[in-house]
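#struct-help
A.M.: can someone run this one for me? Single chain, 130 residues.
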Amino acid sequence: MPTTVLTPRPMPERRLPLIAGGAIVALALPIFLVAGWPVRGWLLGAVLWVASQLLGILFNRVGIGEPSLRGSGVVAFGMMARGILLMIVAVAVAATNPALALAGALVYAVAYSVELGLSLTIYFSGEAKR
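D.P.: on it. Structure tokens below:
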């Protein structure tokens, strides 16, 4: 088991996990409408998810241009900054409207979890680097 987890693999394509996360965000809207939940909460979650994706793409492009330790540092900083920026927005909204923040966090968390789970599945089902 440890060798399976520790074996490096090529980075998988991110398109399918991105589409799956977007589909979750899109499918959440009818659920919010039917359940009578605040649509503004869905909108907050959707905006947070899209902003997270855009920041990820931005930092990834900046880091890939530098095939060095500095480039990987930019990607790592981007991953950390992305989470911090999203949490600042979520906490600010929660301070003024907790129900709205909860609804937005729910949409974002489910979309992110599906995206992460699918990414990990694709990564670990890939062949090991030689």
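A.M.: thanks! The mean pLDDT is 84.
D.P.: also worth noting: Residues 12-125 form one domain.
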